[in-house]
Amino acid sequence: MMKPSVRKELLSQVEELINHYCNGCFLHEHLKKSGGRRAAHRFCITHCTVGEQLQNYGEKLKKEH
Fold it and tell me: Does a structural domain hold residue 6?
């Protein structure tokens, strides 16, 4: 089981990534307007490097929980 301090640090890193790169992302907003919310989300999880990093953090959190 993951130590609470390690889990807290991972969640902090996730929040930092989202706040720095995802909030206000021009590309996400453009894709959402042109292709819809699903298309924008699909881009983020399949093509965006930040989305890839977020998925890696999610896997670490899931494994250790």
Answer: no
Q: Which two tokens stand for residue 57?
A: 């953090």
| pTM, rounded to two decimals | 0.84
User: CA angle at residue 60 from 15 to 17, to 5 degrees?
Assistant: 20
Domain containing 47 equals 25-65
**Do 64 and 1 form a contact (C-beta atoms < 8 A)?**
yes
Establish if 36 belongs to a structural domain: yes
Rg (CA), the chain: 14
In a domain, 14, yes or no: no
- Tens of pLDDT, residues 10-34: 999 999 999 999 999 999 999 999 9
The one-letter amino acid at 62: K
